[in-house]
Amino acid sequence: MKQLVFATNNAHKLEEAQAILSEQFTVLSLKDAGFLGELPETNPTIRENALQKMRFYFEASGKDCFADDTGLEVEALNGKPGVDTAHYSGSRDAAANMKLLLSNLEGAVSRRARFVTVIAAMVDGQEIVVEGEVWGTIAQKNSGDGGFGYDPVFIPEGYDQTFAELPSSVKNAMSHRARALQLFASELQRIV
Ligand code: IMP
Predict the structure, then answer these.
(1) Would you say the CB of residue 165 lies under 6 angstroms from ligand 1?
(2) pLDDT digits over 61-70, tens only?
(3) Could you give the 3-state DSSP secondary structure of residue 64?
């Protein structure tokens, strides 16, 4: 089985990636590949963050690898928080980030938003970049205890509950990250 380093130590992401790529690859975490820290994300776009992370770990390990980066883009805020999603309020505290988002949307006519995940990879000498998205709206207030991050305020299109209220199986079948991983798996089947 071929090995692929995923530039993360997040157990949930590793499990999700392994499940989708299991036919062709064993997915290794950064720790498995011998890296202690994670690279800070300092680029102006989600795509550049994913590419920079992937190239850094590819050059450092010499192993085929991929990296992801995710952002929440809200139409009425001109795509913000976008690349600042993880630390929108100045900290990584999800409650503070959602509070700021809801207050910035007070009185907004549209609450349309999307989560987008970019995966950048180097496999068999080929660079791959794919993007998965899920559209929805930002709720008026937080609801639900499931998931993480902005899940309590994101209502995916076609539903009337937030990602934090919906069963995780429903979220995981349609999420931005799942869609990016599925596209990545199709690209891998094409080239490997
Ligand atoms: P990352 O690039 O996967 O670390 O994601 C950046 C930030 O986006 C996280 O810190 C979360 O705030 C948010 N985020 C990513 N994925 C999700 C999700 O599935 N639900 C809610 N928030 C998410």
Answers:
(1) no
(2) 999 999 999 9
(3) coil
